[in-house]
Amino acid sequence: MNRVGGYWFMLPLQNQTRRAIWSQVDPHTGRNRLEDAIPAELIQDRLENEMFIRLVNGSTIQFIGSDAWSNLVGSSPCGLVWSEWATSDPNSWVYLQPILTENNGWALFEGTPEGHNHMAEMYEKRKDDPEWFCELLTAHDTKHLTDEQLAEAKKELIDVYGEDVGSGYFNCQYMCSFTSALVGSYYGTEIERLYANGQITDVAYDPKFAVHTSWDIGGTTAIIFFQLIGPKIHIIDYLESTQMAADYYVRMVQLKPYTYQHHLFPADLEEQDDWSNPRSRIITLKELGLKARVLPKQKSINDGINAVIQILPSCWFDQTKCKRLINALQQYHRRYDEKRQVFEEKAYHDMHSHAADAMRYLAVSGVRNMVKKDLPKPRYAIV
């Protein structure tokens, strides 16, 4: 009311925003949540389909999902709220931050930790920044629940998930722990061990050894760059981008200062799609100067996930260049079905799946059989 402008309230998903905010009844008051938050006298009109409210002073409030932020780029909001920031698309902040800077606007991020992801990094970087206000409050700090209620909640979680997962879930949801593995995470515990063992650190490219790449392709393409050095797998670089043509990714690979040996691709490489007009991807890559090694079709994704678990203890990740990959592996998970009280059989497909799939292809490729005594001649000359 003090500043006329546009304001957005975002949950991770658009349909989630409608259920949790726009149509939700507060169990404590029995009224619609918006009616409690915004007095009716301040509302001039309300558009149901767009979850849009115009106030009497001309300000607007729109409720959207962080997955739909790109549809609204070009607008000029002066205030943004991310609810459940830990599970929201971090790209939404990357692209919307310049708009706020230009408008001298503000942003609010709130949520519960979901492992060591972008929310944890933001908190660690900004908690001592005088330009930011940061606050971490556990259930003990807020006193919303008694010690007895917290003890009972932890007991119930352990009964449902087991000691390790149940305690981790409690520490995450109630104690705001960024180090506890995400419930249902396939690789969360293994990544925690890598941090503890110092295997997520600075990992430099060694020109004495060839570099291999592992690709997941599609609307979003993910590329892992790795070297095989003795018993260790050095994962030195990572590239991920969305809605780009094949020549873009090939050029990005060629511009890296690496000498390559194998480029690993999933079995669906030969399928046709918008990567290259009517031609197959494998022909496109060959014409662009990149020789693909197509992996056999996997019988079971779960076998691939187990293969990743087996090789992770041998992996060393560069903490800077592979930050996005590491976070994605931590967040790659299957959901828990509250009704059946079991984990779903399939992994939950979200923005972390592409990186996890590229890692899975690396794991099932038989990496130990790739090493040759002689360093291969460079395939590319970048002038």
Could you describe the 3D structure shown?
The protein has 383 residues and is an alpha/beta fold. The chain folds into three domains: 6-111, 3-Layer(aba) Sandwich (Rossmann fold); 140-184, no CATH class; 200-369, Nucleotidyltransferase, domain 5 (2-Layer Sandwich). It has helices at 14-22, 33-37, 91-103, 118-126, 139-142, 147-161, 163-173, 188-196, 246-255, 281-287, 301-311, 323-331, 353-364, and strands at residues 6-11, 43-47, 52-55, 60-65, 77-83, 106-110, 200-201, 211-216, 220-229, 232-242, 260-265, 293-294, 315-318, 336-337, 342-343. Helix 6 (147-161) crosses helix 7 (163-173), helix 11 (301-311) crosses helix 13 (353-364) and helix 12 crosses helix 13.
Shape annotation: globular
The count of strands amounts to: 15
Give the structural class: alpha/beta
What is the CATH architecture descriptor of the largest domain? 2-Layer Sandwich
The first-to-last residue Cα distance is: 58 Å
Largest sheet data: 7 strands, mixed
Task: State the low-pLDDT regions, or none.
Answer: 372-383
Tally of discrete structural domains? 3
| Gyration radius, rounded | 24 Å
Q: If you consult CATH, what is the topology of the largest domain? A: Nucleotidyltransferase, domain 5
Q: How would you summarize what this structure contains?
A:
The protein is an alpha/beta fold and 383 residues long. The protein has helices spanning 14-22, 33-37, 91-103, 118-126, 139-142, 147-161, 163-173, 188-196, 246-255, 281-287, 301-311, 323-331, 353-364; strands spanning 6-11, 43-47, 52-55, 60-65, 77-83, 106-110, 200-201, 211-216, 220-229, 232-242, 260-265, 293-294, 315-318, 336-337, 342-343.
